[in-house]
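Extended Data, record LysR family transcriptional regulator
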Amino acid sequence: MTLQQLTYFLAAARHGSFSAAAHSLLMAQPSLSEQVRRLEAELGVPLFVRAGRGLELTEAGRLLQPHAERTLAEAEEARESVREVREMTGGTVAFGTFSSAHHYLTGGLVQDFAVKHPGVRIRVIGQNSAEVADAVRDGELEAGLIVLPVDDAGLDVRVAAREGMLYLSADPKRVERPITIEMLAEAPLILADARWRQVDPTRRVIRERAQQAGVTVEPMIEVEYLTAALDLAARGLGDTIGTASVLKARGYARRLHPAAMDPPMYATYAFITRRNAHLSPATREFMKLAERRVEALA
């Protein structure tokens, strides 16, 4: 039994003939008649009897009619429920970003999307990349923009761009040359993401590089937010690590002096989704706009 067969059955019942029903549906009469006959064969009972030049419902047909009407109405309601999402006149984008993205990326991105699709609700969660990965993996978020590396189990990962990491100090003498991992191990270091220190991508890169060099990097001060680390560094309490983007966005470019890392160290930005997930049209569009901004950023 198909929705098409029920539609043809109701049209024949309403018009009292197969030919009139077919005309109302802009189709050939034999095709409609054949589908009704298949429905009768599946049910094992006739639904119509000939009455003069027209059709009348049998007892089985009269019993089926309200069920068919209700089924088609519910099917239309189901189609309507997703129409606004498909056409992006409603629904919600659920997206995650790495914690510092709201300083220089999220505001413009949300504005671009909201102007283009004013009927769609937007929920953007800025967390540590490791937490975003967990939320996408668990289905709490549809997709995310994170900094690598993260645990990619159950995720599809697509690298978008990368941006050089900088050593930042209020003392220009400390940034007269590129900073090696050995120098970093001796530096008065201030690092963000204290709560996520074991899985934070930047700390993982530093830790792996330190292990290869046979040194240990221990921050002198740990804070939760990158802006706090930048502020403390600007006050001369130590040095920190960040990108040029956040440095410019937060107005610290005049107060903190940069040095490159030796060898270079990068923030690698990537989009993540659940493996083989089917994304909503709104989330796909949001990711498309995000990709343009990330490319421009890098």
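Summary. Residues 3-86 form a domain with the Arc Repressor Mutant, subunit A fold (CATH 1.10.10.10).
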